[in-house]
Every structure is written in structure tokens, then in C-alpha cells.
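User: quick one, fold this
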Amino acid sequence: MQLLTQLLIGLVALLHLYILWLEMFAWTTRGPKVFKNFPAHLFPATKALAANQGLYNGFLAAGLLWSLLIGDPAWQRNVAYFFLGCVAVAGLYGAATADRKIFVTQALPALVTIGLLLLQQGA
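Assistant:
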């Protein structure tokens, strides 16, 4: 189960690296295809804001990847809990304020991974 949990942490990190790329480097090109509910004419005007959001997604990915490199199991779990919790809260907030699909793509994978960490810790 530990390998599955680490794979899921890695997948959540990869998702956030993709979001970093999308928001920082492809906001005006790929962004309109991904965020269809957002008016197309606003993409150029919001490029700097999206890049800032992308940077924060990069920090989440970095924290999750860092958790995979920590040797002490307790610290590894704690760091993973923290960054997965941040992802889950961001996903819940995004689902409540922007688009419900954010729950499925961002919050749910983090919550499932937190659940697996809790099961692993109890085993």
C-alpha cells in the first residue's frame, strides 16, 4: 500500500506541475481550450494573475515531491499530509467558487491519497 500511496502523491504532484505549465506558460494558448467557461477575451488580460497562480501550484508540487524524498517515515507522512491538505483545500475552494469539476480533478485525488495515508498509518 505504501507504493500505491507514493504513486498517488507523485501523480498529484505531476498534476500540479501541469497546472504550473498551463498557467505560467500556456495561459493564452492552451488555457482557453481547458477553461472553456472563462471568456476568451480575458486570457491576455489575466496572464500575470494566472502565472502567479501557476507558481503556487508549483510550490504544491515541490512540497509533494519533497515528501517522497524524506527518509524518516513520520516526517514523510506529515509533510505529505500538509501538502495534500493544501491541495484538497484549494480544490474545494476552486470547486465552490470557480468550477465544480475542480473537485474531481484536484480535491478528490488529494483526499483519496490522504485516506490511503491514514489507512497505511493505521495498518
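User: anything notable?
Assistant: The chain has one domain: 2-122.
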